[in-house]
Amino acid sequence: YNIKSFIKIYSKEALKLAKRAVRLSDRTSYAKGTAYGLLNNAVCDFLLSKDEKLLEKLNSALSMFEQSGDLTGKAKTLSVIGNVYDNYGNYDSALKNCRQGLNIAETTGGKEIESDILNTTGLIYMRLADYDNSLRAYLKSARIRKGMKNWTALASSLNQISRVYAQQERYNKAMEYYNKSLRLRKEIKDKGGVPWTHIGIAGLYEKMN
């Protein structure tokens, strides 16, 4: 199936629900519901490439989470803001928000959020060709995902680690991690992920020759 179409269809449905959640929460003065509704609304907009008022919604949600002392909501929102700035090519702001979110996640023990922020951080450093910092972030994210037994996310991390090693021309390490990813994806029957690992391996062979 076409993954982009899949995401678009379900993001549209989720966006309708998020907007409804905001309306209902506003009507009943349920601030936490409004904040999470705005956050989910912004995530859907981001997935649908709708940039209008995206950061405005995220900053409103962030302000509400700060006022209520909801650290989990704050960390999640900072993570999304980091992703948005990364998408805009504003890497300094992306890293700044990721660091803030990561500090909160580490303090509160939010392992899933922590691993996601580290993954975004690894991507940003990869774009900046800062491969050492990229690798550190990806490896830490992978360790957390392994500890959580989130095998699908771990397989994705292993793929990303391979890409960094390839950029460093450490081809044996890159192949080692691609093979780890491939074995894991086959084991968990990740039919959508297996082809991506094969593509990565093919690209690596091309890079080596």
Describe the structure.
This protein is 85% helix and 0% strand. It contains 10 helices and no strands. Helix 1 (3-27) packs antiparallel against helix 2 (31-47) and helix 3 packs antiparallel against helix 4.
List keywords for this structure.
209 residues; 10 helices; 85% helix; elongated
Protein topology:
Elements (H helix, E strand, L loop, with lengths): L2 H25 L3 H17 L6 H15 L2 H18 L2 H18 L2 H17 L3 H18 L2 H17 L3 H17 L6 H15 L1
Helix pairs in contact: 1-2, 2-3, 2-4, 3-4, 4-5, 4-6, 5-6, 6-7, 7-8, 8-9, 8-10, 9-10
- Strand portion: under 5%
Terminal Cα separation, in Å?
Answer: 33 Å
Number of strands: 0
Estimate percent helicity: over 70%
Alpha-carbon Rg, integer: 18 Å
Tally of alpha and pi helices: 10
Provide the low-confidence segments as ranges.
1-9
Query: What kind of assembly state do the chains in view correspond to?
Result: single chain
What about the largest sheet?
none
Rough outline = elongated
What is the residue-mean pLDDT, rounded to a whole number? 89
The secondary-structure class comes to: mainly alpha
Give the H and E element order.
Answer: HHHHHHHHHH
